[in-house]
Design brief:
Layout: H1 6-9, H2 22-25, H3 30-36, E1 43-46, H4 53-64, E2 68-72, H5 78-91, E3 94-99, H6 106-118, E4 121-127, H7 131-134, H8 137-142, E5 145-148, H9 154-166, E6 177-178, H10 181-189, H11 195-208, E7 210-212, E8 215-217, H12 220-227, H13 239-253, H14 257-270, H15 273-288, H16 295-309, H17 315-327, H18 333-346, H19 410-426
Parallel strand pairs: 1-4, 1-5, 2-3, 3-4, 6-8
Antiparallel strand pairs: 7-8
Length: 428
């Protein structure tokens, strides 16, 4: 009887047993060849939970036959790091696997980094957070490889499940289990690319199944029931959450309704309604903008309704907002215009405000020359309202143009007005 979970027992013993991640550790990769020949570089492993970061570290250690020590940065202190350093002095070289490496503090770094730099400690760090955002530069600079792992494909998980069913030492091979190929495939496709969840689910299914004449009989309804209780990968603060927000915005920008709704559903299942509402409102003005100016107020109303309703009803107004944004005409001209103006200011391309535009609501303004402003409303121009031909930008940048209209949707009409006003100015 095993005490350890199946997912722990089935960790690969060497790099040939690694499921998936062939872009990193496939036989035609440089990393595979280096490790096979005994050279293990320090590296960072980045990816979502359950996709094999820890397993890959154990597999590398198993192939290299180097002493292996695993620590978690959230609970390890300076004493733990000093023990690793002491082990390295005795053995000559040791692999340190440091999970949650983005939580590594400066005191631990100061103790460890010199030994990583000279090669007596091979550091394999694992993180679910973007290492370029959350891992200390001192650590990154000493890790020659920053490897991003992907969720496993169903075919990879099928191999992993079948291996667990057949392995008599570490897996379930000593049991008689009645499970067919379609049931294995259903597990593989129902865990969102998470190897740990696949093996945990398999173990739960076997333990919950009935036995008949010494054989475990797995039923489809039980698989469906347990798959339905598996949570999504990600949380409100992790990198995956921000990747989902990014994917949602890019799908709306690309007018892909189905992808946008999919990422919206993922985000709502994670549960951060405020962050989703905020991003949707930004998108309405950043990506739809002047091409469909009515969309902004629509999205504001939808997000306010969603916050007031709460989940699960909040999904309804937000789905309306996402689909409307996907199918709306799009323009980013407004935010590009203000960004261009900010850049000009930061580059020193500015000047004095023209005298006739300065404040005159005080005695003595005329003595300072703050006069000459002409009130546009006093000069009607067709159905446009009022307009006069006078200078508004400082002299040094009076010819600057920050706004470049996009000829889409309602902005096509606005662009026509903009171009006509430019022609009027040239007649001055």
């Amino acid at each position: 009887m095993h005490n350890e979970p199946l997912a722990f027992r089935m960790r690969p013993k060497n790099i040939d047993e690694v499921a998936g991640q062939q872009h990193i550790i496939g036989k035609d990769t440089a990393l595979y060849r280096m490790i096979s020949k005994g050279h293990v570089p320090s590296m960072l492993l980045y990816g979502e939970p359950g996709i094999g970061k820890t397993s890959l570290a154990y597999a590398i250690a198993g192939t290299s036959h180097l002493p292996f020590i695993a620590l978690n940065a959230t609970v390890s202190g300076k004493k733990d790091v000093e023990q690793v350093v002491a082990e390295a002095r005795i053995t000559g070289k040791v692999i340190l696997f440091l999970d949650e490496i983005h939580r590594f503090n400066k005191l631990q770094q100061d103790t460890l980094l010199p030994h990583v730099e000279k090669g007596s400690i091979v550091l394999i760090g694992a993180t679910t957070e973007n290492p370029f955002h959350d891992v200390n530069p001192a650590i990154r600079s000493r890790c020659g490889e920053i490897l991003q792992l992907n969720r496993l494909e169903p075919d990879d998980l099928v191999v992993l499940i079948e291996r667990a069913l057949l392995d008599e030492d570490r897996g379930l091979g000593k049991m008689k289990i009645g499970m067919n190929d379609s049931q294995i495939r259903k597990i593989a496709e129902g865990v969102n690319g998470d190897a740990r969840k696949a093996l945990t689910l398999l173990e739960s299914i076997i333990s919950a199944s009935d036995e008949e004449e010494g054989k475990v009989i797995v039923e489809d309804w039980l698989i469906d029931n347990l798959i339905g209780r598996i949570g999504l990968v990600g949380d409100k603060k992790g990198s995956h959450h921000y990747n989902l927000l990014s994917a949602l915005q890019k799908s709306v920008r690309g007018s892909d309704v189905n992808a946008a709704i999919f990422y919206l559903a993922n985000l709502l299942e994670i549960g951060d309604l405020i962050a989703v509402s905020r991003r949707l409102l930004v998108m309405a003005y950043e990506d739809i903008g002047l091409a469909a100016p009515e969309v902004g107020p629509h999205v504001l109303a939808a997000t306010e309704a969603a916050v007031r309703l709460g989940m699960p009803e909040a999904r309804i107004p937000l789905a309306n907002a996402v689909i409307e944004m996907c199918l709306a005409s799009k323009s980013n001209s407004a935010y590009k215009a203000v960004d261009a103006a900010v850049k000009a200011i930061n580059d020193g391309k500015t000047g004095d405000i023209p005298l006739h535009l300065r404040d005159t609501h005080y005695a003595g303004a005329a003595e300072l020359g703050h006069e000459g402003y002409r009130y546009p409303h006093d000069t009607p121009i067709g159905t446009f309202g009022g307009w006069v031909n006078q200078q508004y930008l400082p002299d040094k940048i009076k010819q600057a143009e920050f706004y470049e209209p996009v000829h889409a949707g309602e902005e096509k009409r606005l662009a026509g007005i903009y171009e006509r006003l430019k022609e009027f100015r040239k007649e001055k």
